[in-house]
Amino acid sequence: AGKSALGNLLLGHTEFEVSDGFNSKTKKCCVKTLSIKGNTYDIVDTPGVFDTSQDDSLKEIAKFVHKCAYGIKAILFVLKKERFTDEQRNTLKEIGTFLGKDATNNIIVVFSHASPDQIKCKDKMRMAWRDVPLFSSFIQDIEFRWSVSPDPHHLDDDRQISEERLMEIKTFISNIREIYTTRQLEENLERQKEAKRLKEEEERRRREEERREKELTIFEMVAVGASIGTEAQPGLGTVVGGVIGLSFGLGRAIKRKL
């Protein structure tokens, strides 16, 4: 998606390995040091949730968050500008669920692989996603912290615009006041675990109720059959009805014991 390339642009030199194909080269979190307005930050290149196994990526990110004793200042989502697919929208939901609502205070969206016009004029970039309701809502939730990454292959074509875009991203980072902490992640993961447990419990309860309803339906059908048999042929009906009544009674007794 351009995460590693953006990291190198923010650093001002090449530190992160950049993929030259379709698959992300970043499999493990890689850390370098970034200075913004005299403040020092650790900039982390994480596995791409759109390029590798989503579960593996989120586990790797969670593992790194747990190592950050002072918390996370900013979370940069780097998205290819043409990737407004159902898969991407679902992944955004998954990430939001994984990190929790607290993380919206720390998220910055950066679009990569934009055209020169979109890099120069953000309104042209905005036109690419403004008609996607879920994404527009997501941008609103993060208080419109979004920007466009310069093209690393054409930095000198318009150095001023490239510097402006990089400075905009750095300013977003500096201006974030809330810190996303390990405690917030752990609490959110616990809520997810509890929600999953309740959902599974509800599903088991529903299946058990369906099973009981089927049993009752069978017993009712058999009992009705016995009644009809008694009316049609009294002698035969008495025997059959008696046997069926015994089975029905046992069924009820077994159910009470269960």
Automatic annotation (TrEMBL):
Pfam families: AIG1. InterPro entries: G_AIG1, GIMA/IAN/Toc, P-loop_NTPase. SUPFAM superfamilies: P-loop containing nucleoside triphosphate hydrolases (SSF52540). Residues 182-218 form a coiled coil. GO terms for molecular function: GTP binding. This is AIG1-type G domain-containing protein. Residues 1-197 form the AIG1-type G domain. The keyword GTP-binding applies. It comes from Rhizophagus irregularis. Keywords: Coiled coil, GTP-binding, Nucleotide-binding. Signal peptide: none annotated. PROSITE patterns: G_AIG1 (PS51720).
